[in-house]
What we know:
By secondary structure, the chain is α/β, with parallel strands linked by helices. It has helices spanning 2-17, 50-64, 71-98, 114-117, 150-168, 221-236, 260-266, and strands at 20-21, 31-32, 111-112, 134-141, 176-178, 184-186, 205-210, 240-248, 272-275.
Amino acid sequence: MYQAARTVAASSSSRLHSPVAWNRKSAQDYYDLEAGETERTPLLYVRDNSREASRYRAKLRAQDDPNRVHPVALGLMVALLLFLLLGVVIGVYLLLLTIQRPWPVSHPFFLIERPAWWQNPAALVVPTLERQAITDVIVVHSDSECCFNQEQCVRFLQNAEQSWWTVGHEHIPYNFLIGGDGVTYEARGWKSQHGFKDLPGRNTTLVVGMIGNFTDRQPAAIQYAELKAFLTESIRRFSLSPQYRLYGAFNTTRATNDGAALYNQLQRWPHWKGFAPQQP
């Protein structure tokens, strides 16, 4: 009897020191042995879900990342950048509106460059302009026969170039010439000084020649249209200031009304400032 009591006491002591024991009858549940083997009360049920656990751990890592940008802050930065870009576009558009255009040009600009009409291999050697956008344009007439097609105009330029070179070993002095065919012919171009010693502003002036004699008769309408297109194209190329000044020039060795018909028309144009003073 004493031995049986010791056995019961030992069993009770073992149960007190191990309040939770594994029930061999079920491999899925835990039971409270203090409630007795016949009373099955689940304490905890754990379901292994590796996908949800991975998501949870990834969420915790994202929250703890010091370099992580909050979605709201990212959206504000993108909106700010778009706003700044829109402001730049509007600013450029308004700036372009402030640039004065001589007039709406319907006649297209036609240009024949110097190598196309002058085949001499010798390069054009003339002083270059010291500034990009010049401020003055002087329009003169060539006081010659007019040309009405490309063949005639090219022949005129070739003869003029040859004549100036033969007399003074100088290239044709105009920057550009405009023929009766409505085409602009490059002589010295936008980047070189003109070659007229009696005209001012070699570093600030383009000299444009209208091929023909226009003292008593007007140039052809297409010549005027091409002159307008030339001025607009020069502004577009940033070779002429939008606030340019337009001048005429008398040749004192010719008639006193030299180029009168041409200048009577040009006086009605925007930017007209009168006649350029003669150099001594």
